[in-house]
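INFO worker-7 received task bundle
INFO bundle size: 2
INFO processing item 0
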Amino acid sequence: MRNRTSTDLQKNVYQNRTQFIKISKEAEKLKGEMRVLRNLMSELKSNTTALRSASSSSPAESTGFGESFSSSLSKRDRRSSVADRTALWNSQLQALWKTIGGSQKFLPAVPGRHVIQNAGPWVELDNATWKPRRSMHIVLLNDHLLVASRKKRRVEGVNGDSRQVPSKLVADRCWPLLDIEMIDLAGANETGSSKNKVADAIMIRSVTQESFTYRTENADSNEKVSLLLNFRKAVEELRKELRSEIESTNKAKETLNYFASRDPGLLKKAELLETLSDVKDRPNMLIEVDGKQQSLRWVEGEVDELDVDIALQRFDSAVNRVERLKNLAKGLKNNAIAQDFIKFKADERASKLAGLISHELVDTHNELKKTKRNIGWLSRLDFEDRAREAYLEARSQTIHKRSR
């Protein structure tokens, strides 16, 4: 008892030392994370203060709602923080809704939607005669192009003098960027008079074959050139996002077909198969095995080796692989999807392996060493009941046969 107590004391000292080292490392890591969090909170506070000061300048009263926020923020405040950027974009959309009446109907609040350029005042031209029709206002967003009409109202003063109040903008048309084509009309006509009329004009052609012509009011500005460049850039970004979505969908289908074709039993697990469809897009699908990061494809390789051992009836190696997979699944407590996937694979192979070992147990039940070995394998696979039933059934048949 004294020796056993001394041995237990040594083990406890070693375990306490190991746990103390582990806890100290976790404490040091937590201290570093708290330091980073404190810095991020200070940056968030400064950015929020700058954003509040920018929003207090009432950008909705002017038409430059897109530029008023970005111009009032310094370089330090314009960091690529997701929270700050989202707040900025929401403020821009709210300013857009207040400035242009009816714009909220065309442009509801969608995550990621923001103003790229406030192109300012334009004039709509007649497509046949190039004569001005009405004053317009163009706003380019990351996914839509909004055109608003500028309506002027006159009120009578006290002395009978009429004065013009600030014009009111009303949303007129709104197109998705991928449904329209923007054409620069500069140099599109050969005659000199027509060329001068449309030198600062653009044509917007929609998928319904409707076309609208707009000319900038300020001929000396670069609004048209900036609008064309920003429009092409935004369209290219949308096309890239569309291509990436299609590729991710194809990868998900490919992964789904891969797992389903390799193991038809997964078709019965509808929920597990659906979660595996986006396995390549989920960073937490990487599992740690012996200190290394492995994907679920590595698990498929291990299952293939297990299938080979089962087919060749290398039961000792197969049982060891099944135990390894089960222990790996138990250790993945923070990844339920990978845990269910590995557990399903291990249980399915364990059941198949237990059937083969039980068959051999029945054939060799009269040999002591083989019986002990087979029962030991079934016990390690958690099939003690099957081992007991198979052994007793075989012995019963032998007793009945000999008694007859």
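INFO item 0 finished
INFO processing item 1
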Amino acid sequence: MQEKDILPTVPMRDGFGEALLELGHKNKDVVVLTADLEESTRANLFADAFPNRFFELGVAEQNMMGIATGMALTGKIPFVCSFAVFSPGRSWDQLRVGVCYSKANVKVIGGHTGFSAGGDGATHQALEDIAITRCLPNLAVVSPANARQAYQAVFAIAQHAGPVYLRISRSAPYHLTGTLTHELTKDKFEFGKAQVLKKGKDVTLFATGLMVAEALIAAEQLSKDGIDAEVLNIHTIKPLDDEAVLASLQKTGAAVTIEEHQRAGGLGSAILEVIAGKVTIPIELIGVADHFGETGDPAQLAAKHGLTSAKMVKAAHKVIGEKTCRTMIFC
């Protein structure tokens, strides 16, 4: 599969798997490790093509991270593939002390993030992985919006010297209208640079992962309400593009963030850390409100927890109202 053939309806993990296969052809130093989940993470494509550079470690994520560290320190570029709840979830200590402390060139791939694990339930739905990775020194955190961007991100993180956590969903975006298809794929992925998908002047919508599609849908709806929303895809959560964030907020003066992750410690928290002491604006954070996931359809679970374009529209009206209120004597 070529990049041009990867449509928005393709599951994100498929875009990752195709890119990893192509990267294997281009760079002989790339090796892949999995913990009994090669097919689910789509690492099986690499395994079939390069069996001598593929390592199945069994259900032993901590050991896998340690082996990857050793490989990286000998010049290899290990891609460590598992579900995010297990890696970095179960292997966080080895990621911290082995990979990050050593600045080892390991690429940690956390699959089935957010609610995308669906029927596997709460134990397999990673809603805390951004928080536990972005706090680690030396570790970059990347969260692409769809399969095509995941494909592009694989090559970008392979070029980045140092540890990276790549957050991958099992699914394609839950909702995406035809008119928005081009917006998510028109620009190349640039590591560390936020993607301005739509310019606007009234409110900024910050989104990451599958929620970028929801933000674009929300912007369309807001335009019908006479509101000009700016949409930023924050695909690199760390290092965050502070300049783009502040430039947008200085223009719009109000913001809404959305992520398929706990509201604590994720994208919204990162945005707040950037603006603290620099700009004073009304801002609403949309994320999972201190709950575990549960068994069910991923799109329905996201909707149950308010991770929708409709929730963004409501939040945008709220912050715009608060912005207007601040300019008046009485509200």
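INFO item 1 finished
INFO post-check item 1: The chain has a mean pLDDT of 93.
INFO post-check item 1: The chain is about 40% helix and 20% strand.
INFO worker-7 idle
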